[in-house]
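Lecture 7 notes: from sequence to structure.
We start with the chain below.
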Amino acid sequence: MTDGEATAGVGAGIRRAELVALLSLGTDLGLGQPMEHMIRACLIALRLGERVGLSEEERRVVYYSGLLAWVGCHTDAYEQAKWFGDDLRLKSDAHYAYDMGKAGPALAFLLRHVGQPQPLIARLRTGVAFVGEGRRSLLAMAENHHRATDLLATRLGLGDQVRESLRQTYERWDGKGAFRMRGEEIAPASRLINLADVVEVFGRAGGVDAAVAVARERSGGQFDPTLVEAFCEQAPILLAELDVAPSWEAVISAEPALTDWIAEADLESTLAAIGEFSELKSPWSMGHSRAVAELSGRAALELGLPDSTVTLVRRAGLVQDLGMLGVPNQIWDKPGPLSHAELERVRLHPHLTERMLASSPALEPIGALAALHHERLDGSGYPRALAGSQIGVCARLLAAADALHAMTHPRPHREAMAPAAAAAELRAEVKRGRLDGDAVDGVLRAAGHRVRRRRDWPAGLTSREVEVLCLVARGLSNKQVAALLGIAPKTVGSHVEHIYRKIDAANRAQASVFALQHGLMADAI
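Predicted structure tokens for the same chain:
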């Protein structure tokens, strides 16, 4: 992302539906499904609901609870990985491959997953331990997921009916669900979503026949028999409709409250809620994104960047790790070094973040920046291996803030570094040509470190502004200054505007007089 894009995504209107649909993409990753699975399932539920005469209010409940169904399933992924190995494969099997209300399939599921991927002896030891502690963890999972989902729905202002429907997501028609509700005690929205969730997976993989077969097989057990019959009659049409228009556009257009917008004043807290919710994936990551947002935002102010750019940097920091939902906890929580294959999975998470946010035109610029927080100036970063001027100042700030906060907090493979040691390592990264010096200085100051300055510049100018001033004084155009400093011409223009205001100058000649008067030209590039 170039700094010329720095004002995009700030002040743009965002519908509540876009943020809820964005969360559904994270759910897909956590379930081991391709993105837009829950969006497609929601569309099936909505269209089937219309055919069985759902009221407008019930349709609203289907819409929001359909997109957020299972959104809390990653909140105890740490425990899932401890007992079952790959938490993504675990949830994919538990939700779709096995009918968990029947003893035979449930036992087969446990035998397949408990202790994976350990050697046989270690699996047996895990199996013995699972009988006690592990079984209690398994029984608590639905409650864990519900509580996290309920908190999120409350923060998003979705209302009591949606919250109750989300709680009933874990129920079955036969009463063998999490909270033992049965039959028509279960809200129509929850019954529709349970059916739509499963038939979307089977229909996508095996076509109409596979979707109808699984619906009939689980009718009267997991699913409402009346809804199953309605679905089977309409299955060819319902599944074909999914491919008529892009799923994201279709579900946003289907939002019941077409004027339900997120106020600009509330957007940042909403993005924070989404970012923090994704961090529940691993106990090692909790609090990281908010800290990165605060550090990089304060550093952007330190560098004298425009307010809109500061806001964009902060918002990108809040959601930079949404894509971690698509990487198994076996990797995030591994106490030893990662294999090459595991590193490749880790390198994927910024790309997943970008793909999630790219679905929304209003959020796309935020995602484009957030995806760059692991890029390095020497081209050794990921996911794109960008280098030098390909990495704008905003991304450089995120990279420095991300590195500093990660260093000063424990990870499964190492202890936390002391603040002074982390600061020294960050400066070493500058010398190695991996991190930007100005960005590192700004982040260190934001974190409370003492950073040696060459001097206190006159008129409150920042170091970056002095660089720009001296180059402009020499007659360079904004484009030429941008090329020399590795930033965008639009950013240079913003700097010049700030500089002229601070030094009370109206043009290059007046700026040159100021620079000479204060002895700045000797430090010019």
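Points to note: The CA atoms of residues 78 and 283 lie 7 Å apart. Confidence is low (pLDDT under 50) at residues 1-8.
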